[in-house]
Amino acid sequence: MSSQPVELKQVTHSDWYRSLTKYEKSDMRKNMWQLTNTLVPYAACWAVMVTMLNHYHTPLYKLLPIMVIASGLLVRVFIIFHDCGHGSFYNSKRLNTITGYITGILTFTPYEEWKHAHAIHHATVGDLERRGSGDIWTMTVQEYLTCNPWKRLGYRLYRNPLVLFVLGPPGLFFIAQRFPTRGSGKPERNSVLITDAALAVIITIASFTIGLKTYLMIQIPLMSFAGIMGVWMFYVQHQYLEVYWERHQKWDPIRAALEGSSYYKLPKVLQWFSGNIGLHHIHHLRPRIPNYNLQKSYDEIDELQKVEALTFATSLKSLFLHLWDENERKMVSCWSVRNRLKTTAG
Asked: Structural domain boundaries of the chain?
């Protein structure tokens, strides 16, 4: 994926950039319809799975097709949660907060805590000197070569697909997000406590109604599948061959948005489940655009179409990119760096 370099002043003073404000308007009818076409089928999936387990004693593996659909719907719930965190789902801060807390409980994610970390992510994406909050751990080639062997091993383990996409998501949503991060403010800490308390109430109610075993048999794989989908989406949005990284002095937020955030072009059905978040370059350029207006803005603004699309097939290459090479201005693999060293030594 690549695009032509852009300049901050050039873009922000352009007519097309100013015209993006019209897509930032929230539409209550679209909000209500999105909540309906997401939460109702999600609840229906739960009802069907509970019935199949409790009344027909269906083996869990036979629930896999409906569980995959439910997981996709849960990703869509997270996109609504995400929009609330940006203040873009409703025009009302109060409604965004209420909906954000509810959808956050459904996705095991504390609203204020996540909102704070995600705001830092938007403010620092692509900045090599402000890494470490709400992003994927990314080292430069030089950092990797000069760090101690244990840190190097830890980095390779972290970037291993099994850890990053299979073990990591359940650990993040089930365990890590049950605790406030170091330095969290009172609103963030309270959101963690509220979310944890609500989940405890839900689990208690489930224990006396559908049964704890049934609840866990559904919730654990469902949340794990959704987490894997979500983490993969987030990963490919900022981890690809010619992604934008720059030292702080030269860092440009416009370039970080258009060149450091991918346009992940998915089949329409997957785009629907992921709430158009694949149009990530537009989202980072104007985070106040609701998810249901992202495709429309892309279709109507020619400049937004100049970013090369990342397809599912091409995105798989990102699995083998681990380090940012400041000299070559691209992501490279740990293996290529090791081979380069062997060649030099030879």
From this structure: 8-345
